[in-house]
């Protein structure tokens, strides 16, 4: 059998097989006749495989399929169509395929199809699934674009991408001229990028009457969308199966014990099906994982194996149906217990889920512009989130949802909608993007929910401090270059400053490592001491940023010296490091380096380890993060922020915590107000260096504090020294004048 295969970088390969009977290269007439009898795929001109027809039968069973004719009619006659459907109704996989059929019918004269997703792993898995259903190759006719990974080609007619990537595409292609149909999916997630796209596309649609916009949302947001876009066609999709909901009103006070009891009761009942547990935060996931693993090992093996799967929000893994071959090979029944937190609803795609346990609360990050920090707030989830969690079971004929709260709590304490991220997040990156788009005349955006004026003012103020704005409030040349990097503006500024201080190579490594997920593995119980011993080999006395460089360099050395990928994974495992996170850091760094070369910024040879290079790295970091400085006020590790009166501690995994050395002044990368108030990724800085690099108008705007007084004294001292040096130079030039002045004094 002949085989053709296309592999997309950093993704799973999809294969197309061509039966020998269809190979007509030897002039066999029977092969040609057989080919003529088969139905050809209009997207690639090849005969459909048997798998296509098998998947087609599955597609026809989806709730959305009944609406195909109505959708195609509305698509032909209208510019905007809204689709209302619950989770797992099929709208994310089928509607883009129908839009591709529409574009094919008009010969792609207006472009192809793009479908946005909030989560990157959802975009990848949808692209793989849809390529399979359309019987085409991933990376050719169907592809995906996510941060730091592009699996598309010039032949791609349907691409899935994250909403932030489509937003970034507008910087170079404001009217999105390469697309004839744009599908905004997961609108109910209310991410900043999706809300920005909703507003900007209003203007794009006016400029391009031929462009079609499809909006996929869960039912609760439909009335708001209809009033936002006016009187547009609405297609409603109903799911098949009702879900049995059990409210456990007294369980919320002792939710952890209730969760564990429910898990083991379900397992002992013998009913087949996976369990999904929605917890409040990552710490709860770790705690539950440890307990369920420990207790599960003592269960009767006749009941089957209990496999615990933690889905950490930062890592954004996804749970999909296991391959049929694995299910066949597995002799013992396995029940998966999936532990996840908020925003995990869209990550659960497996039809094997039969039970959902929902605690009804979540820990959210709410940004406070006054102190430039996130607060971690535990609060009830919204009614719309509760409904989405319920719909995970909608494709199951016998699903059961256990709510660890009362119906009264759901109706009175839960808000109707999930808050828009734009109203709770740091808007500096968004404002930088909007300023960049304003160059193309699309800067006035009609948001569905207006961001808080205080947050907008703080974002503008920060961009001004970072020299991203000119005197008229428009983007400076510096700001335009900063917007080219898919990073936080402070990190972009540090990279640009590193060009001046000859430490670009090192700063790119730092940027990649802090942008990727944490390089430290989640530790199993009892492994803490062994892990710390391993991690100590990477510690750098100058701080965490330098330790991250050491870890990355060690990973690079391990990769170069290894004969296979398995050897690298073993090295990471032995040192308790997260191999996928380090791979991602490698990919991120390569893209950042490509941007540096594309815009022709200076790139000095690496000099990591020299004293001058260490100072230069700190200068580059301070150029971007001068707003994130803290001082140890009592010598015992209580750090007071320079910008406000919050006190924080170093994270336990910090270089200084492990080495038990507390520097007086530190620069930090992250800080959230929570029970622990940890500052993360810290490096020691000298106040003298800070005063040399901080913008003076920023320093003068700082609130009065002991820290500011100390820095003011240092600045006065530096100013005195500077004046004396100037006078010394004048003395050297005019000795007679100096002598007379000294005599008079």
TrEMBL record:
<feature type="domain" description="Helicase ATP-binding">
    <location>
        <begin position="72"/>
        <end position="238"/>
    </location>
</feature>
<dbReference type="Pfam" id="PF07717">
    <property type="entry name" value="OB_NTP_bind"/>
</dbReference>
<dbReference type="Pfam" id="PF21010">
    <property type="entry name" value="HA2_C"/>
</dbReference>
<dbReference type="InterPro" id="IPR027417">
    <property type="entry name" value="P-loop_NTPase"/>
</dbReference>
<dbReference type="InterPro" id="IPR014001">
    <property type="entry name" value="Helicase_ATP-bd"/>
</dbReference>
<dbReference type="GO" id="GO:0004386">
    <property type="term" value="F:helicase activity"/>
</dbReference>
<keyword id="KW-0378">Hydrolase</keyword>
<dbReference type="InterPro" id="IPR011709">
    <property type="entry name" value="DEAD-box_helicase_OB_fold"/>
</dbReference>
<dbReference type="Pfam" id="PF04408">
    <property type="entry name" value="WHD_HA2"/>
</dbReference>
<feature type="region of interest" description="Disordered">
    <location>
        <begin position="1"/>
        <end position="28"/>
    </location>
</feature>
<protein>
    <submittedName>
        <fullName>Pre-mRNA-splicing factor ATP-dependent RNA helicase DHX32</fullName>
    </submittedName>
</protein>
<keyword id="KW-0547">Nucleotide-binding</keyword>
<dbReference type="InterPro" id="IPR048333">
    <property type="entry name" value="HA2_WH"/>
</dbReference>
<keyword id="KW-0347">Helicase</keyword>
<dbReference type="InterPro" id="IPR007502">
    <property type="entry name" value="Helicase-assoc_dom"/>
</dbReference>
<keyword id="KW-0067">ATP-binding</keyword>
């Amino acid at each position: 059998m002949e085989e053709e295969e296309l592999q997309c970088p950093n993704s799973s390969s999809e294969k197309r097989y061509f039966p020998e009977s269809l190979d007509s290269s030897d002039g066999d007439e029977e092969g040609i006749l057989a080919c003529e009898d088969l139905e050809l795929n209009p997207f690639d001109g090849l005969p459909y495989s048997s798998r296509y027809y098998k998947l087609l039968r599955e597609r026809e069973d989806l709730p959305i399929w009944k609406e195909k004719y109505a959708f195609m009619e509305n698509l032909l006659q209208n510019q905007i169509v809204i689709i209302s459907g619950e989770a797992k109704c099929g709208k994310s996989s089928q509607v883009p395929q129908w839009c591709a059929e529409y574009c094919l019918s008009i010969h792609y004269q207006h472009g192809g199809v793009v479908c946005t997703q909030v989560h990157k792993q959802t975009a990848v898995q949808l692209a793989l699934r849809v390529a399979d259903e359309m019987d085409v190759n991933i990376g050719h006719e169907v592809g995906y674009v996510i941060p730091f990974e592009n699996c598309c080609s010039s032949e791609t007619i349907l691409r899935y991408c994250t909403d932030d990537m489509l937003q970034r595409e507008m910087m170079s292609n404001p009217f999105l001229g390469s697309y004839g149909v744009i599908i905004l999916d997961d609108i109910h997630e209310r991410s900043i990028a999706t809300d920005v796209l909703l507003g900007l596309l209003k203007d794009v649609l006016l400029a391009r009457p031929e462009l079609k916009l499809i909006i996929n949302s869960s039912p609760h947001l439909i009335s708001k969308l209809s009033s936002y876009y006016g009187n547009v066609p609405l297609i409603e999709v109903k799911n098949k199966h009702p879900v049995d909901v059990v409210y456990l009103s007294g369980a919320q006070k002792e939710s952890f014990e209730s969760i564990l009891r429910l898990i083991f009761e379900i397992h002992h009942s013998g009913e087949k099906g996976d369990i999904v547990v929605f917890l409040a935060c990552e710490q709860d996931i770790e705690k539950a994982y440890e307990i369920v693993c420990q207790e599960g090992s003592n269960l009767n093996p006749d009941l089957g194996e209990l496999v615990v799967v933690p889905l950490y929000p930062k890592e954004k893994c996804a749970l999909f149906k296991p391959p049929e071959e694995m299910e066949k090979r597995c002799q013992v029944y396995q029940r998966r217990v999936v532990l996840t937190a908020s925003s995990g609803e869209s990550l659960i795609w497996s039809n094997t889920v039969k039970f959902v346990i929902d605690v009804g609360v979540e820990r959210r990050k709410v940004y406070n512009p006054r102190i430039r920090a996130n607060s971690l707030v535990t609060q009830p989830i919204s009614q719309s989130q509760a409904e989405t969690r319920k719909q995970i079971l909608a494709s199951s004929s016998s699903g059961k949802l256990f709510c660890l709260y009362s119906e009264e709590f759901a109706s009175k304490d839960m808000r109707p909608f999930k808050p828009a991220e734009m109203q709770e997040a740091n808007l500096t990156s968004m404002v930088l993007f909007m300023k960049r788009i304003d160059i193309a005349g699309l800067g006035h955006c009609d948001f569905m929910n207006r961001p808080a004026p205080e947050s907008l003012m703080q974002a503008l103020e920060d961009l001004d401090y970072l020299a991203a704005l000119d005197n008229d409030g428009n983007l400076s040349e510096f700001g335009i270059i900063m917007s080219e990097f898919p990073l936080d503006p402070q990190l972009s500024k540090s990279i640009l400053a590193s060009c001046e201080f000859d430490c670009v190579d090192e700063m790119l490594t730092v940027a990649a490592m802090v942008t990727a997920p944490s390089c430290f593995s989640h530790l199993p119980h009892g492994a803490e001491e062994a892990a710390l011993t391993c991690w100590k080999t990477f510690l750098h006395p100058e701080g965490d940023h330098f330790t991250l460089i050491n870890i990355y360099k060690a990973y690079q050395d391990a990769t170069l010296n290894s004969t296979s990928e398995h050897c690298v994974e073993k090295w990471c495992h032995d040192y308790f490091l997260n191999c996928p996170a380090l791979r991602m850091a490698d990919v991120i760094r390569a893209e950042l380096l490509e941007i540096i070369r594309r815009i022709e910024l200076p790139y000095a040879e690496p000099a990591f380890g020299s004293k001058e290079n260490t100072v230069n790295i700190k200068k580059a970091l301070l150029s971007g993060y001068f707003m994130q400085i803290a001082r140890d006020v009592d010598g015992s590790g209580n750090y007071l922020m320079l910008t406000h009166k919050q006190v924080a501690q170093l994270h336990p995994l910090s270089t200084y915590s492990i080495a038990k050395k507390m520097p007086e002044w530190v620069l930090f990368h992250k800080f959230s107000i929570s029970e622990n108030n940890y500052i993360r990724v810290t490096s020691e800085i000298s106040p003298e260096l800070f005063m040399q690099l901080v913008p003076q108008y920023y320093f003068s705007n700082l609130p009065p504090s002991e820290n500011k007084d100390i820095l003011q004294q240092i600045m006065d001292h530096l100013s005195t020294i500077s004046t004396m040096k100037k006078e010394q130079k004048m003395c050297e030039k005019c000795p007679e004048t100096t002598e007379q002045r000294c005599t008079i004094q």
